[in-house]
Amino acid sequence: MPITEILERNAREYGNDVSLVEVNPEITEKRNVTWREYELIEPNPEYHYRREITWGVFDEKANRFANLLLSRGVKKGDKVGILLMNCLEWLPIYFGILKTGALAVPLNFRYASDEIKYCLDLAEVDVLMFGPEFIGRVEEIAEEISRNRLLFYVGENCPTFAEHYDRLVANCSSTSPDIKLTDEDDAAIYFSSGTTGFPKAILHNHESLMHSCKVEQNHHGQQKDDVFLCIPPLYHTGAKMHWFGSLLSGGKAVLLKGVKPKFILQTVSDEKCTIVWLLVPWAQDILDAIDRGEIDLSKYELSQWRLMHIGAQPVPPSLIARWKKVFPNHQYDTNYGLSESIGPGCVHLGVENTHKVGAIGKAGFGWETKIIDEEGNTVERGQVGELAVKGPGVMTCYYRDPKATAEVLHGDWLYTGDMAQEDEDGFIFLVDRKKDVIISGGENLYPVQIEDFLRSHEAIKDVAVIGLPDKRLGEIAAAIIELKPDHPCTEDEINEFCHKLPRYKRPHKIIFAEVPRNPTGKIEKPKLRQIYCGESLVAAQNRS
Predict the structure, then answer these.
(1) Helix, strand or coil for residue 306?
(2) Which of 76, 197, 230, 531 could form an S-S bond across to 448 if both were Cys, CB 3.0 to 4.6 Å?
(3) pLDDT tens by residue, 111-148
(4) How many CB atoms lie within 10 A of CB 110?
(5) Where along the chain do its domains lie?
(6) CATH homologous superfamily for 438-543?
């Protein structure tokens, strides 16, 4: 069943029930809302800005956008890019795209202009939707990308190089377009990258999306009266696929803009949230704020909060032990996944297995797993090998990249590139990653991109970027820098130079040392990890 049919069912059966709420505690003034379907709730002293829509309005907005796209010649198999921060418009736009038979192509909001253009070209995107936060970046490439694409702007004060989405959809039909979809039809393209840092376009069909709905509801048991708090960006498969549990149950979801502990707890209290998905840093920040006396839990209504789950990075068992002391009635869960496996859930810990925190779990609902050696043979339990997964959520391919596809798809099995081992009870533990990608606070950092930037500094002879363990972020980027002879340079100078990088890409640690390379010229990163990760682990243990 195509996932669009679930939205249409919700509109029929729960049309007047709230589907989505947008909350932004950072906004203190009221904002004009021109669309009649939006309800702007009067802000209270803690909570300043709130919008909501019902399931009926959600479906109507998706239909209007679908009909706008069709009127502009968009057809089945075309691609529509989404470059938006989380907002009420995001998901109706996503489903409007799917209703036309076109493919939704979410873009990372951290992308610079050249990365946006690269991804648009790679995925052969025909239409780009973008919001006010991206005007400058899109304007830099507007002349190039608008030659063969439509540009629609979502928000107030539309720039001259784009068309105004709000005004256009208001005049479109709210009737669902008669486009026949099947499970095998292509549905979406998500972006991922290997150690080279060049994004790969990951193609999924409607069966993948629908399976992620079933996985999420099976793992977390969403009911109609559950309320899901969504904080991470919707371009992530993780955020969207966890929300799919609310879609399948017809429950309400809240999109929160802001990660401060008081924002999260106030939202849980005011919106009566029952399920909250956090990243490790956010959970640690909440606990630390409570420990410092900045948060008084008695001021919030939290009794309905039943489940806290974490994903996107390894979870320290000590963090969950702390959490359970503060919130003893919470269920806890973690999920493992990749964008190539339609996000979280192909491996799943389970709320009944808190005693195994540290493991990523066992095969998720509808999934199979195995741990293999270099020849693809299953290793014995307890031995380290590469984790492979199999299930209805495995990607179709890397779009327009058959070579990369062949490297990870072997029959029905997806080779994850993650090294793992299985304990005596069948629980899987990650050991290391084949890939050099650094996961910091749930975001992927690609060492080659940072290395290439640093090499442009006149004093740097060679550089290698690796991940070091960090209590809060999981990992941080460390740059091992080998200076040119007679080119003195300080850590402060390097940090100042790195201000040209986006904040999340800047190295957290600078180490001046020789960069080892093997006889073929490749950087010996395992050797660097052996040297520096051990020191970092000791430092982390001392901090804890």
Answers:
(1) coil
(2) 197
(3) 889 999 999 999 999 999 999 999 999 999 999 999 98
(4) 13
(5) 438-543
(6) ANL, C-terminal domain (3.30.300.30)
